[in-house]
Amino acid sequence: MVELKNDRFLRAMLKQPVDTTPVWIMRQAGRYLPEYRATRAKAGSFMDLCMNADLASEVTLQPLERYDLDAAILFSDILTIPDAMGLGLYFAEGEGPRFKKVITKRKDVEALGVPDPEQELSYVMNAVRTIRRDLKGRVPLIGFSGSPWTLATYMVEGGSSKDFGRVKGMMYDDPAAMHLLLEKLADSVTLYLNAQIAAGAQAVMIFDTWGGLLTPKTYKEFSLDYMQRIISGLQREAEGREIPVTLFTKGGGQWLEAMADTGCTGLGLDWTINISDAKKRVGDKVALQGNMDPCVLYGSADTIRQQVSDIIADFGEGSGHVFNLGHGIHQHIDPDNVKVLVDAVHEFGQQ
Fold this sequence. Notes:
The chain is of the alpha/beta class and about 350 residues long. The chain has one domain: TIM Barrel (Alpha-Beta Barrel), CATH 3.20.20. It contains 15 helices and eleven strands. It has a seven-stranded parallel beta sheet with strand order 1-4-5-8-9-10-11. It has a two-stranded antiparallel sheet with strand order 2-3. The chain has a two-stranded antiparallel ribbon with strand order 6-7. The two termini are about 30 Å apart.
């Protein structure tokens, strides 16, 4: 077991003292980096890149070569589980992810199996093991999954959607079928994340990208309850360390208290909530991650530094802050601006 040289991220997640605020960036290995685009071209397609452990490791480490980041995040996709369930994931040019098979009725749900992560998703576990080896203890590795509700939206809609009428229609018209789908997905995500932890992930994150579409009542029933079920089923220690679990519901700022009650270690915040307000609401219960608007990175170096300074000042005293964007980095961002961000976090974040 290689000793971890920089555990700042893990310490902040556990609300332990740190020398400065840690930072990593959602989608930090991605299309804004020319070296990523070159490796993806070499791989042939996005899924070929995900399924090649050496190339997945190469792109995971690329941002660490450029920036003084405090964590690496597994290079994969949130839709690996539905793909392993037999829905046939593919990426249409300019359209994003699509599925060849779509869930439209209860019989479709009943036909789904729960995938074995070391069988149908072995390429993800191979990537985790390869990345851990290649990191050589530089920084911790974050594993992740989509939330059951978010995965269900893609499975029922067949891809992304403007109004999410099909998935919400199923939720209201046949709630029993929707609950069956979410149960199978919660079981799948629990197995998947535990397998990532066993393979070497040192923290995990659940991305609930579309939870913010729901009403307060349906959010609890169809999204939060299933994430809580996953959290209660996760292995919370490995290699003698606690495994932090971060919950991120985009557009979920109104439900932070309920999210903090799930037993997670930290909450991801988008840019629609002030971090000082979030901290007042959840108290010392959880760490907070976020929450700069990704579009700030289109601004000047002075603008970026000012925004970083403001967010760190808003968080205020004490540990438990991991700096991040409020969602994934945009593909047209200048990579030099990311360096300004990362360096500013470490400068202003010195406790």
